[in-house]
Every structure is written in structure tokens, then in C-alpha cells.
Design goal:
Layout (H helix, E strand, L loop, with lengths): L2 E5 L2 E4 L4 E8 L7 E7 L6 E6 L6 E3 L7 E6 L4 E6 L8 E8 L12 E2 L3 E6 L1
Parallel strand pairs: 2-11
Antiparallel strand pairs: 1-3, 3-8, 4-5, 4-9, 5-6, 7-8, 9-10, 9-11
Length: 123
């Protein structure tokens, strides 16, 4: 049974930091590209960050570039998102997702999704 479980969300002040984690099971994570996405109230889900199945390539949305870092530990079946210099506009539910090796920033390419973790940044 495939499981994707995010954690680490919470309430943080403007300029603060949070680290999200995503633990996977039921599939071989090292064979999958991984991504973080987010959805703010009243908005569509959007791409945040991607890491290739090898871990050798990463992509970021322009809105988070230089502030967020995606990383993976295949031995622990865990994906991370380090978020620094948080802004109120980063407030959203953050989702972890797994996709085939060719997956990049395109939401529809991802097969397995978690339930999300809420991140709220106060001004």
C-alpha cells in the first residue's frame, strides 16, 4: 500500500524557517522523481520544488528560489523541504508527490500524493 505522509508544518513568523518532511512507503522512492507543491486558499495547486530520482538535479519555482531547498534521503525514504525567509504569501497547504523519472514541475505527471501539511506565515 502506497503511503506519502508530510509533516513539519505549523505557524511561523515572517522571516522564520520551517523544515517539511515527507516519508514514503509502498514503493521504491529511489526510482521516483519527487516534488513539493502547495495550494493556498482559493488558488490552484502550484509547483514549488522538484528533485530528480538521482538527486542530481533540482528545480524551484521563481517565487521560492534562493529561500527553499529540496533534498532527499533515499535510504530513509524521506523527502525534505527547508524553507527560510518565509513570507505571508508562502501560506498554503504543502503537498509531497512522487512521479516517474521523467517528471518535472508538471503536476499531472505525479502519481502519488500525500494529504498535505499546513504552513501559515504571520505578518
Amino acid at each position: 500500500q502506497v503511503q506519502v505522509v508530510e509533516s513539519g508544518g505549523g505557524l511561523v513568523q515572517h522571516g522564520g524557517s520551517l523544515t517539511l518532511s515527507c516519508v514514503t512507503s509502498g514503493f521504491t522512492m529511489e526510482d521516483y522523481a519527487m516534488g513539493w507543491f502547495r495550494q493556498a486558499p482559493g488558488k490552484d495547486r502550484e509547483f514549488v520544488a522538484h528533485i530528480s530520482w538521482t538527486g542530481g538535479r533540482t528545480y524551484y519555482a521563481d517565487s521560492v528560489k534562493g529561500r527553499f531547498t529540496i533534498a532527499r534521503d533515499n535510504a530513509k525514504n524521506t523527502l525534505y523541504l527547508q524553507m527560510n525567509s518565509l513570507k505571508p504569501e508562502d501560506t498554503a497547504v504543502y503537498y509531497c508527490a512522487a512521479g516517474p523519472k521523467y517528471a518535472d514541475w508538471t503536476i499531472s505527471e505525479y502519481n502519488y500524493w500525500g494529504q498535505g501539511t499546513q504552513v501559515t506565515v504571520s505578518s
